[in-house]
Write a structure and sequence with these properties.
- One of its GO terms (biological process) is DNA-templated transcription initiation.
- The protein is mainly α.
- It has one domain (22-36, 45-205): Butyryl-CoA Dehydrogenase, subunit A, domain 3 (Up-down Bundle).
- It has helices spanning 24-31, 51-70, 73-90, 97-121, 130-133, 136-140, 144-153, 158-169, 174-181, 185-205.
- Helix 9 packs across helix 10 (185-205).
- The longest helix is centred in the middle third of the chain and has 25 residues, at 97-121.
- The two termini are 32 Å apart.
Length: 207
């Protein structure tokens, strides 16, 4: 990822050589990638990658991504299930497994947007408690600092949250975020910069 991406010149996650002007919020966001371990590669298969292969290796990472966008695991699983259903319907038009994973990310972002819109129109909706909505696995490995950032992420505007989650949690480049969200690369960069500043302000106000 280039040094100008996401409004930051951050080094790799955990890199002690990260620039001194990188904000504490950006450093913490950068470590969120640890909450999304890379899926184990599937065993060598005699034929091409199948939908079942992608489901086994990428379903949980997509669920974790959706949890950060919609705030509760049940809704996240619904979003991801629908994304895989769409993948099945469009399988013949996809070039390869990389295109399929890109399709899934975009479908998860769009499905999360639809879920949030439906919630805004449902008067009886009660937001889940942030302390119990996410999976026990994710919460168990979060420090108090991480929990503060993740909770504050839920209060950002949806577009800002999408960009930060895809950038810091998903580890995507500006181009990949633009593809997943339908935004231009310039909008991705400016949105990330504003979101980091807003997130830092919210966290400072609470400490």
């Amino acid at each position: 990822m280039g040094p100008d991406e996401a409004g930051s010149t951050a080094g790799p996650t955990g890199d002690p050589a990260a620039p001194p002007h990188e904000s504490p919020v950006e450093r913490t966001l950068g470590t969120l990638a640890a909450l999304n371990p890379a899926p184990a590669p599937p065993p060598p298969a005699p034929g091409p990658v199948t939908i079942d292969d992608l489901y086994r290796t990428h379903r949980m990472s997509m669920v974790r991504l959706a949890i950060l966008l919609v705030d509760d695991q049940a809704s996240a699983e619904d979003v991801v299930q629908e994304a895989f259903a769409g993948l099945f319907r469009n399988w013949s038009s996809l070039r390869d497994s990389a295109a399929a994973i890109g399709y899934l990310r975009t479908a998860v972002v769009n499905g999360s947007r639809s879920m949030l819109r439906r919630r805004r129109t449902a008067r009886a909706y009660v937001p889940p408690d942030p302390g119990t909505a996410r999976s026990a696995e994710s919460l168990a490995i979060m420090s108090a600092e991480h929990r503060a950032v993740v909770t504050a992420l839920a209060e950002l505007a949806p577009r800002q949250r999408e960009v930060l989650v895809l950038r810091y949690y998903g580890g995507l480049s500006e181009a990949e975020i633009a593809e997943a969200t339908g935004l231009s690369k310039g909008t991705v960069k400016s949105t990330a910069s504003r979101a980091v500043a807003k997130l830092g302000g919210m966290i400072r106000d609470r400490t």
